[in-house]
């Protein structure tokens, strides 16, 4: 069994990460009722005897003593990390694996990347090496961050280059939360474009999440609940709407439910690494099968059931309906419509009591309505994990390498250019040592090249599919 390390950067990254660990613990508690430290738990947790001082307290088998998350928490403000350390999950995080500062990055990518990157590089490396030493077979780093702020975008992408240099063989999966057009950080287009260049060059896979899509999903859930269509009883421990176990404060904050959706994405993404199944999909298989070209490593994710997670009175979605939902635009975690765009490849990660025949039947049913590139008509990768999410009979995560991601990047570039043409707020960046105006021009050129690659693929949509001759076997 392989292990993975989660790196949570900035306010958004740490809040999502905390939700993720809360859900993972609930899931393993439901499955592992005897409290034995097994391979499933070891993939994301260490078992530590807290009575032993130093690093000698790790226990490789037997009863669970004290679980420590394989995580590094980084923020250049103390608020969120302190809140986590005062909450119910405080004992899950190793205090030696935290890096905080007081001043913050001031919503400035340059401060996060250039100033704090240089200042904390050795300290970050030390924490990463320590995390790697505790793993028997480290396979993947999961980085969680936002694109619009200073620490998440700047220091979060600085990390990628550090990881690439120090651990070139270990996969780098990045969950990036993109700002909406109404974002309250005026400089978020600058931060996002500068971060995009680093994602293009140093990430293996990026799962872009759009804040607006998350907000729309939660608004629809609230509307359905308040209108009485879903009944009146919201699940107290709904996987989507609750993370009461993660933070000290019990009142619901506006971003809690949105963060929980992203945490659920990570929960399902890692399920094959954590549990057995008849058709397991390793993390390296996602990259190998879904990324045909190095730059085109942005995977559009959709999650189902989604709206039904909010309420206890809703009957579970029929299995076939669940597959249909995964390809509808209402279930995408960015504002996109993959059915009307071009697929390079698609992965279906199914959990629960689902058979291989169910998978095949639904793929055959959906195929006629989906456009795949001519050279990869059978571009499906599938996995079956036998353990469903807590409280549900089955779930599905779809990951699509699809040209529908292009409008998100085009809109981001347009918002960047509106500011950049006026040179608005540019002086805040250029006064940071090591930051030059060429950083901006190179970043927007990098994004334009990526958009062009997607446009070239889109241009092949109407091309006829070649009927490749099959090998005939004489009987």
UniProtKB/TrEMBL annotation:
Residue ranges occupied by any Tubulin/FtsZ 2-layer sandwich domain in the UniProt entry: 279-414
Output the Pfam families linked to this UniProt entry.
Tubulin, Tubulin_C
Q: Does the keyword Iron apply?
A: no
Keywords on this record?
Answer: Cytoplasm, Cytoskeleton, GTP-binding, Microtubule, Nucleotide-binding
Keyword Acetylation appears in the UniProt entry: no
- The Tubulin/FtsZ GTPase domain is annotated at 49-277
Gene Ontology cellular-component terms for this entry are: microtubule
Localization annotation: Cytoplasm, Cytoskeleton
Family per record: Belongs to the tubulin family.
The name this protein carries in UniProt is: Tubulin epsilon 1
Which organism is the protein's source? Sciurus vulgaris
Q: What is the lineage of its organism?
A: Eukaryota, Metazoa, Chordata, Craniata, Vertebrata
């Amino acid at each position: 069994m392989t292990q993975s390390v989660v790196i949570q950067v900035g306010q958004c990254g740490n809040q999502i990460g905390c939700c993720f660990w809360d859900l993972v613990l609930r899931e393993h508690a439901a499955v592992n009722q005897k409290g034995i430290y097994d391979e499933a738990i070891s993939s994301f947790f260490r078992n530590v005897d807290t009575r032993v001082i130093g690093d000698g307290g790790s226990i490789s088998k037997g009863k669970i003593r004290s679980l420590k998350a394989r995580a590094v928490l980084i923020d250049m403000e103390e608020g969120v990390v302190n809140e986590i350390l005062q909450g119910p999950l405080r004992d899950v995080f190793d205090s030696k694996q935290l890096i905080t500062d007081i001043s913050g990055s001031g919503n400035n990518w340059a401060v996060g990347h250039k100033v704090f990157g240089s200042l904390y590089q050795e300290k970050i490396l030390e924490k990463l090496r320590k995390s790697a030493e505790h793993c028997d077979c480290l396979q993947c780093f999961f980085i969680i961050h936002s694109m619009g702020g200073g620490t998440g975008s700047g220091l979060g992408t600085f990390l990628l280059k550090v990881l690439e240099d120090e651990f070139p063989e270990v996969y780098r999966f990045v969950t990036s939360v993109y700002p909406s057009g109404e974002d309250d950080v005026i400089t978020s287009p600058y931060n996002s474009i500068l971060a995009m260049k680093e994602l293009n060059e140093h990430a293996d896979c990026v799962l872009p999440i759009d804040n607006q899509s998350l907000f729309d999903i939660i608004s629809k859930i609230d509307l359905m609940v308040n209108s009485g269509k879903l009944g009146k009883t919201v699940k107290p421990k709904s996987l989507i709407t609750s993370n009461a176990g993660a933070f000290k404060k019990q009142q619901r904050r506006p971003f809690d439910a949105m963060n929980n959706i992203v945490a659920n994405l990570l929960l399902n993404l890692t399920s094959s690494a954590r549990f057995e199944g008849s058709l397991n999909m390793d993390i390296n298989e996602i990259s190998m099968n879904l990324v045909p070209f190095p730059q085109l490593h942005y995977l559009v994710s959709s999650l189902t059931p989604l709206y039904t997670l909010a309420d206890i009175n809703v009957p579970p979605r029929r299995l076939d309906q669940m597959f249909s939902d995964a390809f509808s635009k209402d279930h995408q975690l960015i504002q996109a419509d993959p059915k009307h765009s071009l697929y390079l490849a698609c992965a279906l990660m199914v959990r629960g009591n689902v058979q291989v025949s169910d998978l095949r039947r639904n793929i055959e049913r959906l195929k006629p309505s989906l456009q795949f590139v001519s050279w990869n008509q059978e571009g499906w990768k599938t996995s079956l994990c036998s353990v469903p999410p807590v409280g549900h009979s089955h779930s599905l995560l779809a990951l699509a390498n699809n040209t529908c991601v292009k409008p998100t990047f085009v809109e981001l570039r347009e918002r960047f250019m509106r500011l950049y043409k006026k040179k608005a707020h540019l002086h805040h960046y250029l006064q940071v040592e090591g930051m030059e105006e060429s950083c901006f021009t190179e970043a927007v050129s990098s994004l334009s090249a990526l958009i062009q690659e997607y446009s070239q693929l889109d241009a092949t949509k109407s091309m006829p599919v070649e009927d490749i001759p099959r090998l005939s076997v004489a009987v």
